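Example 9 (inverse folding). The structure is encoded as follows.
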């Protein structure tokens, strides 16, 4: 009888302990939600590695402006960045394309409506060694290089999964690219370094990275240059060759222009929304403009679009 009473007396105690533990977990979860908002908390952000310079600068300014925020930039080539997004490694991503319908279905099935904003226009640029005689490249020759039909030269990309490779493949509507005609490095700096040492190759990088080399006054610029690319569109610019610059991107005459998107797949009103608003707002657009790219919305004061005449 005494044993039975002891046994039953334990039950209320266990119930009280379980209730206390449940309430504690609930309070911690509530506290965490309350400590995270559009300007507070920690946020992993997937970034296409060809866009790192401008996004890194933007993230630094954002964090210094909002000390309670912390951004973790997860830098990946495009394909790996998208795969990480679909694996829930992060819910905010910066790319030069939107997700495909198949990729977007993953979030659609979960009832998540993405918030997608274009923040800038960048470009894919071709570079070669200054010792090479070529300073221009026709569209026909670029396509021939990708198909492996132009002997004596190779295209060098920053990564086999790079957005620059995907861009050119889409631009020329190619089903496949000759793997013998291209090589892949680790990143864009490696591409510039390789081209500075080799005269029989053409490098392919994001304009953002070339501008970063200009900003740093890199010694590589003494050995490499951007190529002028043929415009095959309609109008007065057809048949003319244009170097990449802020002005030729803004005017739309440089052929290989690409958008830059900040895409937020957070299911709630979190820091992703705050960072997106910063990038597309006046301060973020000034950073884009200063970096040499073209902002989606021009900042609210008189500005000067830079040409590339100052670049060697």
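The amino acid assigned to each position is listed next.
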């Amino acid at each position: 009888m005494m044993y039975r009473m002891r046994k039953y007396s334990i039950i209320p105690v266990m119930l009280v302990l379980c209730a206390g533990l449940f309430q504690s977990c609930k309070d911690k979860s509530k506290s965490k939600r309350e400590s995270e908002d559009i300007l507070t908390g920690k946020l992993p952000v997937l970034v296409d590695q060809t866009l790192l310079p401008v996004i890194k600068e933007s993230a630094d300014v954002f964090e210094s402006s909002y000390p309670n925020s912390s951004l973790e930039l997860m830098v990946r080539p495009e394909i790996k960045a998208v795969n990480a997004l679909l694996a829930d490694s992060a819910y905010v991503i910066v790319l030069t394309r939107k997700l495909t319908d198949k990729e977007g279905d993953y979030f659609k099935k979960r009832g998540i409506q993405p918030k997608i904003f274009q923040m800038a226009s960048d470009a894919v640029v071709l570079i070669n060694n200054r010792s090479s005689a070529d300073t221009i490249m026709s569209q026909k020759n670029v396509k021939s290089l990708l198909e492996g039909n132009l002997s004596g030269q190779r295209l060098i990309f920053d990564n086999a999964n790079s957005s620059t490779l995907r861009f050119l493949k889409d631009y020329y509507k190619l089903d496949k690219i000759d793997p013998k005609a291209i090589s892949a490095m680790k990143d864009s700096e490696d591409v510039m370094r390789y081209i500075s040492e080799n005269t029989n190759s053409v490098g392919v990088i994001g304009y953002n990275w070339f501008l970063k080399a200009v900003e740093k006054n890199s010694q590589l610029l003494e050995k490499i240059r951007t190529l002028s690319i043929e415009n095959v569109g309609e109008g007065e610019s057809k048949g003319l060759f244009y170097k990449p610059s802020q002005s030729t991107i803004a005017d739309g005459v440089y052929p290989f222009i690409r958008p830059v998107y900040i895409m937020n797949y957070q299911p709630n009103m979190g820091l992703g929304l705050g960072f997106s608003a910063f990038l597309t707002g006046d301060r973020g657009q000034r950073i884009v403009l200063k970096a040499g790219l073209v902002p989606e919305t021009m900042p609210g004061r008189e500005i000067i679009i830079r040409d590339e005449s100052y670049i060697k």
